[in-house]
Amino acid sequence: MARRIADLIMFLRDGTIEMPLPYSIPISFVSATPNELPQPASFRMTGYEAWAAVDVFYCQAPFRIQPDEALVIKGRFPDCAFANVVLWNRHLQAFDYRGHRISLNRKQTIFEPDGSFRMVIAHKDPGVPNWLDTAGHTEGTIFWRFLLPKGQPEKMECALVPFSAIAERGNPDREGAV
Predict the structure, then answer these.
(1) Between 45 and 59, whose confidence is greater?
(2) Residue 56 forms beta bridges with which residues?
(3) What percent of the chain shows pLDDT beyond 90?
(4) Which helix (H) or strand (E) holds 143?
(5) How many CB atoms lie within 10 A of CB 6?
């Protein structure tokens, strides 16, 4: 029993007070710049020793979004076994997924006619497909993963825009729509 309690204490300390500050250890697929995703990469490509799958590509960045803003992410999924995006807090915990859509996988994503996607992270529903809810948080982490990709996943484009610039449902081609 003492061993199990010691393991629990170690787990809690490593995930809280002794957890390294975000971005204190540089990893190529982790951006320290808010609202800017880096080129996805695998741990094998980084040279960083970690207990992680070497055939999975990751991409991570902090986000900062005010209630009157939205973050638009445009990109393409690689040919892979699975891909998803999820919103986390600084302790790598998912936001409230029971009451908010904080993640999407490739199968759930609605694609543009050219095969690309456009996801919108915002505090309220902008009336477009692929909306991810901040669940009331103005700051958090965007985390992507691509399992067994057949090639290098493309770098995604990010743009922080006024919420009012997001196209309304059924009218994505309006003048000035993002």
Answers:
(1) 59
(2) 147
(3) 62
(4) strand 139-147
(5) 10
Number of domains present in the structure of the chain:
1
Answer with the residue of higher pLDDT: 99 or 24.
99
What is the torsional sign of CA 94, 100, 104, 108? positive
Average pLDDT over residues 48-60: 80
- Best CA proximity match to 35, nearest among 112, 126, 132, 139: 139
In the DSSP assignment, the letter for residue 11 is H
| CA–CA–CA angle 15, 20, 24 (5° rounding) | 150
Does residue 98 fall inside a structural domain? yes
pLDDT number for residue 24: 58
Q: Which residue carries 């456009």 as its tokens?
A: 118
Q: Name the region of 130 (left: φ>0; alpha: ψ -120 to 50; beta: rest).
A: left
Q: Read off the tokens for 42.
A: 């695998």
What are the pLDDT digits (tens) for 123-146? 999 999 999 999 999 999 999 999
Q: Find the CATH number of the domain harbouring 41.
A: 2.60.120.600
The domain in which residue 96 lies consists of 25-165
Q: Which long-range contacts (CB under 8 A, 24 or more apart) does 94-98 make?
A: 95/133, 95/134, 95/135, 95/137, 95/140, 96/135
Residue 8: predicted pLDDT: 74
